[in-house]
Write a structure and sequence with these properties.
Elements: H1 2-6, H2 8-24, H3 40-51
Length: about 50
């Protein structure tokens, strides 16, 4: 498991997973206006796409 912390690809995947988990738990205002919790991640991606 030590190799995962040094591998760049693995670290990006780990950070992305943590971001999505925090998003689903409501730690960010992204996707807050989604009508259902199941759609919060999709709404947040739409908001991020507009910003980028």
């Amino acid at each position: 498991m030590r190799g995962l912390s040094t591998d760049r690809t693995a670290s990006v995947i780990i950070l992305g997973h943590a971001f999505v988990q925090n998003l689903r738990r409501g730690h960010y205002e992204l996707g807050a206006e989604a009508h259902r919790d199941a759609l919060r991640a999709a709404a947040a991606v739409d908001e991020l796409a507009d910003v980028i």
